[in-house]
Batch of 4 targets.
Target 1
Amino acid sequence: MPTITNIEDLKRIYERRVPRMFFDYTESGSWTEQTFRENTSDFEKIRLRQRVAVDMSGRSTASQMIGEDVSMPVALAPVGLTGMQHADGEIKAAKAAEAFGIPFTLSTMSINSIEDVAEATTKPFWFQLYTMKDEDYVSRLIQRAKDAKCSALVITLDLQILGQRHKDIKNGLSAPPKLTPRTIANLMTKWAWGIEMLGAKRREFGNIVGHVDTITDTSSLGTWTAEQFDPSLDWNKVEKLMEQWGGKVILKGILDADDARMAAKLGADAIVVSNHGGRQLDGALSSIRVLPEIMEAVGGEIEVHLDSGIRSGQDVLKALALGATGTFIGRAFIYGLGAMGQQGVSTALEVIHKELDTTMALCGERNVKNLGPHNLLVPEDFGGRWQG
């Protein structure tokens, strides 16, 4: 096994091992990919304050997210098609998260179903909901998540209309992959992935196939999915979904202070500051850049998590020091999963945890709960100076 010291090491193995269309699905944003790039580059603009001669024994990264104990304030974000990155990908990622003591979030657009993941794990996981036009399907989906004892519903707000990702269109992204000459040529170079996929529990969207009467094959699935995202989603519908769920709710996709205030007013347990990994509105600000403004607007009223752009434990620390209670990682764990399956996810988490712990110590802190702006050097114009 190669020596893994950072997330980039996993990414290099991932790119060699996984078919191009699924690598591109993960490693891309919408339109020009400006927001996708700045999600990571904006973290680099924040510097850390080194402190010395502080007792660094007995350090702890343990914390809580929405009242749940976590070994570090990091959750695995909902990522569609995870089961195409590696056979039984959602199951393996969920098991790695459970073993590490952090939350796993299952996407509506997962390959393994809610029931598959529940059967393979022993602790409750979170379920992410895309609102669809088919209200009966959404109601049944919520009930299935309840039956599986999911401990939180993560409602995604920023995908009423699908942002255009050029690579996915050019690659003809689908699950399972359509066998075109170009796809076949690429798959022939990914034989290890292919052999494992032959034994996978599922190769289609497990939360949809078998649960929608009109879907009979992969072509009808594609048509149904493309037409189903609900453009009429508004705060009234969000409130009804929260009432229907009746448990802990996290609202994901907040990038504006006014929207954060509205989410807090509705009584959500947490919001996720996120631009969907730069995959929706290209040209929007990075998540880390808007975090301070959102913390100022609602920091005392609602728990705030940060998603989009985290590739290291240092990124996690910067988000926490700016006020976030927790963070979500998507691409970072997908790199590990695609590279080495469940062990790769565990390795990604170990890398991030070590970076978080070491950086915290060098900043003079023994506990993640004590991190704050005093640990950072933030450019004066980091939030941006924009015309009113």
Target 2
Amino acid sequence: MTALVEKSAVITGASTGIGRAIADKLVVEGWRVFGSVRKEKDAAELQSALGEKFSPLIFDVTEPEAVKAAANDVRDAIDGHTLSALINNAGVAVGGPLLYIDPDELRRQLEINVLGPLHVTQAFGPLLGADRSLRGAPGRIVNMSSIAGKIASPILGPYAMSKHALEAFSDSLRRELMLHGVDVVTVGPGAIKTPIWAKADDIDAEEYKGTEYYDILIGMRDKFKEVGEAGLPPEDVGDLVHQILTVRKPATRYAIVRNKFFMWTLPRLLPKRMIDNVLAKRFEIPVRKKRS
């Protein structure tokens, strides 16, 4: 594959999990991949593992100036051609009952999962085709949402809020970028076997000791780990993203969930009050009877 036709992609949060799986897949398929990490040691490990087709970018998605500097580096590397793809994957999951959560924790969640993709898209958008001086076809953006982008679970309200916002961002952005021929596709995974589930122990239940949610939080931490262990392999998401980037006309949104009918299709059809009761039972939230 010559440099003139070489496909190129930027992936945020490429060090582990879904981002790493996407990078692996695209490199194997011959793409030139630029992957963002926050630590030098992760950059070195990825470079060694993925070889000359991979170039690490060191930045935090919450730091706009660092993101812009990385975009300039990519512009130089692709030498007057358009970037084929941008995958907004970097994110975190913040948990806690909304009645008591520290607003600063919610602010951090939104800063990373919502403003982060905005910073990255604004920096790399010109390379995808908004800059008409570049040669080549317009690229595509893939925004990594979640099943939580459509179905909000208790105790994960901050995370669900951020992913609902990302869904709206994706839809508005897709309609705006029709002007430049840049498509935007959303991917909403269910449970995937990634380190984010292993971090369930990081939820500081002690912060909520003395509240009515303490015992619920303790129980949910174990459930989160069980869900993660039963999740789909991240390689499945890598395969899906490659498909999205190579088919002629992808759908606007993809759900990738184990037991898709029961975990995705059916909950989207049932009344929300029924889903409320299902989730309360699943997460062992005692339901106080209302007065008649």
Target 3
Amino acid sequence: MAAQLFFAALCSGALYALVALGLNLVYGTLRLLNIAHGDLAMIGAYVAFVAFSTFGLAPPVSMVLAAGLCAAMGWALYAGIFRRLFATPETAQRLEANSLILFYGVSVILQNVMALGFTSTARGYSYMGEVWRIGPVMASGNRLLMLGTALAICLGVLLVLRFHAFGWSLRAVIERREAAGIVGVNVDRVQGITIALGFAIAGVAGVLVSMTEQITPFMGFPLTIAAFVVIVLGGLGNIFAGIVAGFVLGFVETFGIALTSATYRSILIYGLFVTVLLLRPQGLFGKAIQVR
């Protein structure tokens, strides 16, 4: 029983970490609160559904398609709107202050466009649903794929941040955007690539969700809330701590529900969120855990 709960917590934590990773990258680099982040995951989920049900394409292929589509959306937003607004400190500050409202509008548009195209009826498909026994744990193939993919992406981003020149530039922009530009970092390039990467990760997360749950045009809001909880737990802009916090939330939720009831899920999540805000507004890890 404990081993099964541990596996379930790992799966939930990996998904939360992945969803929050894209949001944290965008916030850390551009200081924009993307409340439409979960709706990008919803777009990825529908890409997987259409690709599987209409063309017979497996979710691993859909991940590439969803990542490309969401990355293109992110780059279009940046090139068409954000780049011009980031050109001067005054408009950049105004954009940061109003980003919540701007992305709320994007969220409403995406939800309603998808509702018009697919209706609000829940949809789903079956992929790798067979159950395997691994020691004391019963695990379905789609959950193993979800866990492996989420871990691989999170690890890949951390390795890029630590060892790649672009990762160093990204970390510099997260730390101090103006200072990074002064020392020669191409801030515009870093911001454009990062928003595309953050949106792409959200699309992949949506594909992973679609393998294990039914999807609707309004599924994104709970994912957005979970991502915000995770990045507040880890500290805004702290990439490594955010990934760790995703697993913390997964374990709190899974074991909390096992010890109480599924009806307490929201209480557990929001209770943890409020407690951390009150006791450690800088996040559970403060400045102790940083990407180096």
Target 4
Amino acid sequence: MMIQFLFHAMPLRALVMGVLIGIALPLYAVSAAEPTAVVEEASGGASKLTVFELLEPGQKYRLSSDEMIVIGYLRSCQREEITGGVVTIGESKSTVTGGRVSRGYVECDGGKMDLSLELAGKSAVTVFRSKPGKTDPNLPSLTIFGASPVILLARPVKEITFARLDKPELKLRVPVSGLNVDLTKTDDALSPGGVYGLVAGDRRVIFKVDPFSKPGAGPLVQRLIKF
């Protein structure tokens, strides 16, 4: 009833403007889309962008001539080094106006690093037995291509745990401060070719480390897990 009253009481000009705004909303809502890229490096201030920051299609950033950013695209596995200009984030690559951009592709598990993880509440070392005809729950959902993964957390936890599932190996427990963990900062690394369960709070995912992975820093999209 209140909505009807407001509708009838609204001046025609305001009503027309409201309709126009409503039509424009989908264009603005692009910035509320799922992230498609992540900041890997930022120098010279880079419009206050920070490493590990997730970027959404339609977002624009103006870089001065001495500002540089490196962006990794989560689905296309494209990596861009951009200096100066206006940068518009896209689905698989950026549009750069008035600046310089260098592009290349890296090996990554595009589209799978963004996981809606199962609420497990179980230890990562638990071996689950699947019923006949059912998918083995211990199959990896994701492959990373670096032995020192980066974990981006959706909510704070005190600790994350890595437990190898395919071979006996000591669990790796890593204390957390903030919403990201980079194993290059803790001097830890996982075993190339290993299958691991990762637990953070009540969330769990199983992933594989590519057999040719190396420890240490490398392109972020190769070793990223959004958790």
